[in-house]
Amino acid sequence: MAKLWAVIKREYIERVRTKWFIISTVFGPLFFLGIMVLPGLMSVRGMKEAQVSDVRILDATERGLGERVVTALRQQAERDPLKALGGTMPVATQGQVVVVAPAQLAEAESTATHAIMRKELRSYLVLDATTLSEAKARTAGRNAGGIGENAKLEGAVRRAILADRLSAEGLDATRIDSLTRINVDLMAEKIGDRGRGGSGTVSIIFGFIISFLLYMMIILYGQNVLRGVLEEKTTRVSEVVVASVKPDILLAGKVLGVGAVGLTQQLVWLAFSVGVGTYGVVAAKMMGVPGMTAITLPQVTAIQMIALVLFFLLGYIFYSTLFAAVGAMCGSQEEAQQASQPVMMLLVASIIFVQPIITNPTGGLARTMSLLPFSAPIIMPLRMAVTEVPMTDLAIALVGLAVGCWAAIWVSARIYRVGLLMYGKRPDLKELIKWIRYA
Questions:
Q1: H or E, element range at 199
Q2: What are the tens digits of pLDDT across the range 338-390?
Q3: Element (H or E) spanning 197, and its range?
Q4: CB contact at 8 A, 335 and 426
Q5: CA-CA distance, 311 to 26, in Å (whole number)?
């Protein structure tokens, strides 16, 4: 036990003192906050800057549909919800409606195409007989792949077609639009066995953040164990260490020591998150950010908190022991990168199911993935945050993960015991089986 504690202490202190640990602990939350918030802000900004005003509308419908599209674009800009974020959408006052005969449409398109090539025009929209009969339209331009602009043009054309059809039936399209245009703000709230549990949307965001952080921590610190084992093996330090410490104790100490570093970092980040949730709204209002309201975090019981810690620790042990085995059987960084791909695929297979599980957290896929040992550390915390998880499922997942950890440790310890002192060519599967059988 004294030797195990010595190895754990060495691994912990050696990593906590590094500049990388200090920098990642201090700026890590800012990095994760940035990669979660900035894409949304940039998307909103891109939508605000999506220009739909400088478009030439080629109207070959002979029904005045082009003017209706321009009117719809103006109305769309006036009621755009992005105004609340401190800006306005460009109003389509420069939409050039060119009424052409159906026979002259090809020539008008050619003229507009050459105007775009000369950078005299940004894009054009084609409205013809199929637009009225089949609700089909065409647009072309330098930014034809812009989702924001295409969505606005599509909405404007749809409203224009609807107005034209209502007018053909003798109905007042403007009056009907004013009566039927209602924006519904649906507030989702969780209700579990203990009653109301807060906002469902916040729970989804919270669950995604928890799963993503667990995924990143397992990868980062699992790879840290792999690099540590590989470094000790290539520098021949392991030959000196195993003379006084058994390989199994060395493996356990390395895994637990690096895991303690990860847990320390998680606790620091948790304190940072609580601080942001408590004082972030106040600070945002002081900086003049509009529309900020208090964020109520989901209720986390003591059992759920203990379960989250257990899933992190067991998931880390499961993957870090596998990474340690990979490091022990390889002789270079290049070999380790190739050999670690199967382990990485298990992690990737877990994270790619996050979105469909958020969509249906009570379905069969969510339950199955949350019970499998290799995916439970990522998926079960997500389920716990999004919906009420039965205690039987929670117990089955933890027991299954514990059994998976035992199997991973059993296999990795035998590979580690032999591979730590083996050099040369990387062993194949047949040789690995021999190591496991005779170690």
A1: strand 195-199
A2: 888 888 888 888 888 888 888 888 888 888 888 988 888 888 888 887 777 88
A3: strand 195-199
A4: yes
A5: 24
Give the Cα separation of 307 and 62 in Å (integer): 67
Question: How many H helices and E strands in the chain?
Answer: 18, 6
Q: 123 - beta bridge partners?
A: 55, 141
In one letter, which amino acid is 211? Answer: S
Exposure on the CB side of residue 89, measured as CA atoms within 13 A: 24
Classify residue 315 as exposed, middle or buried by CB count within 10 Å of its CB (0-12, 13-18, 19+): buried
* Residues shown for the chain: 439
User: Does the pLDDT of residue 147 top 90, yes or no?
Assistant: no
Round to whole Å and give the CA distance between 215 and 385: 16
**Integer Cα distance of 175 and 163 in angstroms:** 10
The backbone torsions φ and ψ at residue 326, rounded to the nearest 5 degrees and listed phi first, read -60, -45
CA distance 199 to 209: 15
* pLDDT at 403 (0 to 100): 93
Q: Measure the CA–CA gap between 279 and 61, rounded to whole angstroms.
A: 57
Q: Which residues pair with 97 in a beta bridge?
A: 57
Among 4-8, 155-159, 197-201, 322-326, which is the least confidently predicted range?
Answer: 197-201
Locate 97 and state its tokens.
């409606």
Looking from the CA of 94 toward its CB, the CA atoms found within 13 Å total 10
What domains appear along the chain, each with residue ranges and CATH number? 2-39+199-438 (no CATH), 48-180 (3.40.190)
CA-to-CA distance for 88 and 53, rounded, in angstroms? 13
Plot region of 190 (φ>0 → left; ψ -120 to 50 → alpha; else → beta): beta
